[in-house]
Specification:
Blueprint: E1 9-13, H1 20-28, E2 35-37, E3 40-42, E4 56-58, H2 61-70, E5 73-80, E6 83-88, H3 89-97, E7 101-105, H4 108-117, E8 122-128, H5 132-142, H6 147-161, E9 169-172, H7 176-191
Parallel strand pairs: 1-7, 1-8, 2-7, 3-4, 8-9
Antiparallel strand pairs: 3-6, 5-6
Helix pairs in contact: 5-6
Length: about 190
C-alpha cells in the first residue's frame, strides 16, 4: 500500500429488492478490502430495526433542505415526494480520514452523481434483478411496506433499469453466490489499479 492513502469509492446501485444491500454487506465483511459503509442521510422515519448513525442519518425534512441549501451533500435526491436521501460530504471525509475505501448502497441517480464527481476514484456497479416480477416478490416478502409503496417502487424500477448501461459494471443477480463472487472480483481489480 502507498504511503499516502488514496481512498476509492465503490457505488452499488439498483432498484429496491435487487440484492444490492446483501452484496454490500458481504463485501464489508471482507477485511482485505478495507471498506467502510457510507451512511446516507434520509428525511424519513426509521423502518423496523433501523438505527440512526448505523443504517441512515435520520434527519427532519426541514434540516435536510437546510443541508441542501448549505451545499453539504455530495449528492441528494428526492426519491419520493418529501422523501429525500443523500450523501453528506462529511461522511466520505470521515471514512477517508480513517484510511478506508468507501462503499455506497444508494439509488441510481445518486450513484451516477458520485461517479461524475469522482470519475477516477469511483467504480460504479449496477445490480440487475432477474426480472420485475421477481423484484415484486422480494419486496412483498420484506413485509415492510404497503402495496401502494411496493407498486411505486416497481414503477420506479423500470426507469432505473434503463440506466444500467451508464454504470461501469453490471452484476446480474440471478444467483446470489455467483453475484457475490463477481462483486468481490470487481472490488479486487479496482483496488489493484
Amino acid at each position: 500500500m502507498k504511503e499516502d492513502f488514496e481512498g476509492k469509492l465503490f457505488v452499488f446501485s439498483a432498484p429496491s429488492g435487487s440484492g444490492k444491500t446483501t452484496i454490500v454487506r458481504h463485501l464489508l465483511a471482507k477485511e482485505a478490502f478495507n471498506l467502510a459503509f457510507s451512511i446516507s442521510a434520509a428525511s424519513r422515519a426509521p423502518r423496523g430495526f433501523e438505527k440512526h448513525g448505523e443504517d441512515y442519518y435520520f434527519i427532519s425534512l426541514k434540516d435536510f433542505k437546510n443541508h441542501i441549501k448549505a451545499g453539504d451533500f455530495l449528492e441528494w435526491e428526492e426519491v419520493y415526494r418529501d422523501n429525500f436521501y443523500g450523501t453528506l460530504k462529511t461522511e466520505v471525509e470521515r471514512l477517508w480520514a480513517q484510511k478506508k475505501h468507501v462503499i455506497f448502497d444508494i439509488d441510481v441517480a445518486g450513484g451516477l452523481r458520485i461517479k461524475k464527481k469522482f470519475p477516477e476514484k469511483t467504480l460504479s456497479v449496477f445490480v440487475k434483478p432477474p426480472s420485475i416480477d421477481e423484484l415484486k416478490i422480494r419486496l412483498k416478502k420484506r413485509k415492510t411496506e404497503s402495496e401502494d409503496k411496493i407498486n411505486m417502487r416497481i414503477a420506479k424500477a423500470s426507469v432505473e433499469l434503463a440506466t444500467a448501461p451508464q454504470f461501469d459494471k453490471i452484476i446480474k443477480n440471478y444467483d446470489l453466490e455467483i453475484a457475490l463472487k463477481e462483486a468481490e472480483a470487481l472490488i479486487s481489480d479496482f483496488l489493484a489499479k
